[in-house]
Specification:
492 residues, mainly alpha, Beta Polymerase, domain 2, Four Helix Bundle (Hemerythrin (Met), subunit A), 3 domains, 6 strands, 60% helix
Length: 492
């Protein structure tokens, strides 16, 4: 039934494009017809669309100059088309075409040069989004030939990714072992989902699949390779924060993936031997308060002793960070892209060096992303997807806390003290008790609480004229300005 819905939506989209959109573009801008291609992406392309799905259709320009020249003109033409009713009612948003360029979508470097560096820096879900799209128009064979060239991570890239992911998996479950899930619900979920993300990564890669957008990563897991279905079941099983078998099941999967990747000569021998022989879940809090930063994979390999020492000494309030968590390599370049990627709560950036314009754009991003993620929770509720309901609720809470600090021109504290810092700061005093209350509620009531928090912050933004009325009232329109898709999953 699900795949039938995807097929129906693909068929309708082709009809709408070739019968209405393409002739309208050809009539006015015939010279542009070989400068773009058209992809259907996301759930429809993955074959898992349902009655709650939107259809994501992208007109993509290979050259950014052509995107700048034509996308507004195309948009005006398409908005003037009176589609038959069958197209307007085909999904929640109706028939919508969105515009991108390879540069703007964050895949241009990879499209041009597939070096080790571009493989490691490429946002994986965007690569999955492009490679697994359904292409319905490609007169110059731009994307079709690209898909044929892309197979999977080569040996060095896969080795780097697996080893980094395994180290993070050990780190997050070690921290999780220090947390009381009954009294620290938010923090317990925060690190459980970080563990789950690394386990899902390892499951997808074992099947030689790129990981999709996080909204689909858990659901699609049930169709992925030999490990996916069982991991899908276990992650759902241990969602309850008071589940006494949570760490035991996580440990089982860590051991399973450790053996798998070591036997396939991907997981580094020293890292695997350390995990087998030395790694301990010490329940005593560590006295080590130092923060150690590892900037890249090469540094991890050269400094295994520091990594092993950091893993063993992890306590609830001690930590170390890999570049995937901090993006510290961006330090010193204070444009919007850099400030969105840098984990300034970790590296102690001097926010005085960041222009007010960039900070305002970041507030705009947070305003949008809270709105978006609460909507994703509602979609997960309709689909009875318990995992995404809880995962996105946890993300929304962190964004609400961050927005509370950002609006007061303060940096987001480390996750261990985020909630307590919000309480002691006195910022938006209505929000803290609402968040605490939300942890004990079912999803419909939790959504209501999150919206209340969002509107408290929005009221402050309106009162202080931090964003324009248009930015506040038109989230779907401003998403292209803030380029949220590049940044929404960097912290997971």
């Amino acid at each position: 039934m699900v795949r039938n819905i995807s097929k129906q939506l693909i068929s309708l989209t082709k009809e709408a494009f070739f019968d209405y959109v393409l002739p309208a573009i050809k009539d006015k801008y015939s010279a542009s017809l070989d400068k773009f291609f058209v992809n259907i992406t996301s759930s429809v392309a993955y074959g898992v669309a349902d009655k709650h799905s939107d259809i994501d259709v992208f007109i993509l320009f290979r050259e950014h100059k052509d995107y700048l020249k034509f996308h507004e003109k195309f948009d005006k033409i398409i908005k003037a088309i009176k589609f038959p009713e069958k197209f307007e009612g085909m999904c929640d948003k109706g028939m919508r075409f969105e515009f991108e360029s390879l540069k703007k979508s964050d895949v241009l470097d990879f499209y041009r040069t597939q070096s080790y560096e571009t493989w490691m820096n490429q946002t994986e879900w965007l690569l999955c989004w492009l490679v697994n799209s359904v292409t319905i128009y490609d007169p110059k064979d731009y994307i079709t030939s690209f898909k044929k060239k892309i197979k999977f991570f080569d040996g060095d890239v896969l080795k780097s990714k697996v080893n980094m992911s395994f180290i993070l998996l050990l780190k997050y479950q070690k921290i999780l072992s220090k947390i009381d899930p009954l009294n620290e619900h938010y923090l317990a979920d925060f690190y459980f989902f970080k563990v789950a993300k690394q386990l899902m990564n390892l499951a997808y890669w074992s099947a030689k699949k790129y990981t999709p957008h996080t909204k689909w990563q858990y659901f699609m897991l049930q169709f992925i390779g030999s490990y996916g279905p069982a991991l899908y079941y276990d992650l759902d099983l241990i969602l309850a924060t008071d589940n006494p078998n949570r760490l035991k099941i996580i440990g089982k999967w860590t051991a399973q993936f450790g053996r798998y990747w070591f036997n396939h000569k991907i997981l580094d021998k020293e890292i695997y031997n350390f995990y087998i022989n030395e790694y301990k879940f010490n329940t005593e809090n560590s006295s080590n308060k130092n923060i150690i930063l590892f900037k890249n994979y090469g540094e991890v390999i050269k400094n295994k002793g520091n990594i092993f020492s950091s893993l063993n000494s992890l306590g609830k309030f001690s930590n170390f960070f890999l570049n995937e968590e901090t993006n510290i390599v961006y330090l010193g370049k204070y444009d919007y892209d850099a400030i969105m990627r840098i984990q300034d709560k970790y590296v102690g950036l001097d926010t005085g060096k960041i222009s007010s314009k960039i900070q305002t754009k970041r507030i705009n991003y947070l305003h949008f992303i809270i709105w978006r993620k609460i909507r994703v929770i509602n979609g997960a509720l309709k689909r009875n997807n318990r995992f995404n309901q809880a995962w996105y609720a946890n993300q929304a809470v962190e964004h609400i806390i961050e927005m509370s600090f950002r609006l007061k021109k303060q940096k987001l504290p480390l996750e261990f003290i985020q909630l307590s810092s919000l309480k002691s700061s006195g910022y938006f005093p209505q929000i803290y008790p609402l968040l605490i209350k939300s942890f004990k509620l079912d999803t419909p009531n939790k959504i209501e609480i999150l919206w209340k928090c969002f509107f408290i912050l929005q009221k402050y933004i309106k009162k202080n004229k931090i964003l324009s009325q248009f930015q506040i009232g038109n989230p779907l329109e401003i998403q292209f300005d803030i380029e949220y898709w590049k940044y929404e999953n960097l912290r997971l």
